Amino acid sequence: MNMNFDNFTNVTSSQERDLEMSRVFPSLMRKVYVWMAMALAITGVVAYGAGNSPALIQLLYLGRGPIILACLVELAIIWYLTSRIQKLSLVAATTWFIIFAVINGLTLGWIFAAFSSAAIAKTFFVTAGTFGTMALIGSYTKKDLTKMGGILFMALIGLIIAGLVNIFLKSVMFDYIVSGIGVIVFTGLTAWDAQKIKRNLLMAPDTGEGAQKVALLGSLSLYLDFINLFLYLLRFFGNRR
């Protein structure tokens, strides 16, 4: 009888959790995109300020050392967030996300020094349209995109290697080819991440802080997809000054 009662209690708790999740799920999904938009806004403001400051241009972009250091810090923050998210409070995780957005803004400030405002704005709107379309597809398609995600991840590794190789080759044509592949990869990853976020939220152990931290990690993934898609598209739409 005790076993039956325990089973009944577990089933009831699971049903209550599912009911509560169905209620709060739309709010959690909104938070994913609100956090992403917040991070993009912070990055954009910081990048604009850095790219229009002669002192910061001199300090950050005329030598490779500061940018390499900033990129290493960014990688460290991503690793720390993804590996320690369950042990961090939501406030701490959000703070690290904001710090990451600020540092990324510093690494991207060169864009405002190298490209016209019109080219940046045009690329941003093209990126936003492409991103929004793929995020909707990923969120609402009934097709499982898991296999596609594995293929895209392998393509991403190849993309990174190709980019490193072209640092030494300095081939304009090869850069365009890599950029075209990059657009395809991050367009696909946007849909895949959107579906993965939806799935992870539905599987979250609770509807409180734990689920919100899942949403925060999801917003970080989509933020990175947007930034990378923007950078690759900028190679095609951007007119250097």
UniProtKB/TrEMBL annotation:
Coiled-coil spans in chain: none
UniProt-annotated location(s): Membrane
This protein's UniProt keywords: Membrane, Transmembrane, Transmembrane helix
Stored InterPro entries: Bax_inhibitor_1-related (IPR006214)
Topology of the protein relative to the lipid bilayer: Multi-pass membrane protein
Annotated TM spans: 32-50, 56-81, 88-113, 119-138, 150-168, 174-194, 214-234
Family the UniProt entry places it in: Belongs to the BI1 family.
Name of the featured protein: Bax inhibitor-1/YccA family protein
Organism: Prevotella fusca JCM 17724
